[in-house]
Specification:
This protein is α+β, with helices and mostly antiparallel strands. The chain contains 7 helices and 11 strands. Bound molecules: calcium ion. Calcium ion (CA) binds next to helix 5.
Length: 235
């Protein structure tokens, strides 16, 4: 399988800082590619530091599986927050995809997302660790109410909250023609899944698709930092 990708990040139209981070790393022949997106939180500079630390620690954890890399990132944030008082309380989401051979393994904590787009159908692979998602699963609110729920920013899991943070893990088989999307909630709170699917369909190159998604989030208001990684699989 050949893997090509593009990553784009933008502060949006409302905020003046970008607390999102994203990073790809590939070996020389791109047989193994790791791509991570993170959405930091925690006043002053905490959010930026947490998301950057998370992607760096996860990418640097060579020879670990996807979920393990997320655990390593969590430990890096926990220890840094202990060492530096002004960073205490920082946290971040982290969604990481490790492409190797004919599989992708995903490690995930928080409300950033991984999607697969195959044969024109967009499937959300990860589950948001948010209060609103729990309400939705329990039938306490409708999908419509979830979209602009006042508590939609509250996460039930994030890196930096506790040492033994449970990490979601999944493995998918790759098919030529698959397109994967990793993104922060700055995209998914602004653009519907249908809108995302249309843009993935209309834009052939990963870099075109990535920028089209960023542009759509900003056209819809750009309330939040937005980061997307579009990853194409070909034979
Ligand atoms: Ca965000």
């Amino acid at each position: 399988m050949t893997i090509t990708w593009s990553i784009a990040s933008n502060p949006g139209r409302v905020r003046n800082r970008n607390e999102d981070s994203a990073f790809p790393v590939a070996d020389g022949s791109a047989q193994e590619v790791v791509i991570a997106v993170a959405d930091g939180m925690g006043g002053h500079i905490g959010g930026e530091v947490a998301s950057q630390l998370a992607v760096r620690a996860a990418i640097a954890a060579a020879d670990r599986d996807a979920a393990d890399r997320v655990r390593v990132a969590n430990e890096a944030i926990m220890s840094e927050a202990l060492r530096k008082r002004h960073l205490s309380g920082m946290g971040t989401t982290l969604t990481l995809a490790l492409f190797a051979g004919d599989t992708v393994s995903i490690g995930h904590v928080g409300d950033s997302r991984a999607y697969r787009w195959r044969d024109g159908e967009l499937v959300q692979l990860t589950r948001d660790h948010s209060l609103v998602m729990e309400y939705l699963a329990a039938g306490r609110i409708t999908e419509e109410e979830a979209l602009d729920h006042p508590q939609r920013n509250i996460l039930t899991r994030a890196l930096g909250l506790e040492w033994r943070m449970p990490v979601d893990e999944l493995v998918e088989h790759l098919r030529a023609g698959d397109r994967y999307l990793l993104c922060t909630d700055g995209l998914t709170t602004m653009v519907t899944d249908e809108g995302i699917a249309d843009l993935l369909d209309e834009n052939r190159l990963p870099q075109e698709a990535a920028w089209a998604l960023i542009e759509a989030a900003n056209l819809a208001g750009g309330d939040d930092n937005v980061t997307v990684a579009v990853i194409d699989i070909s034979a």
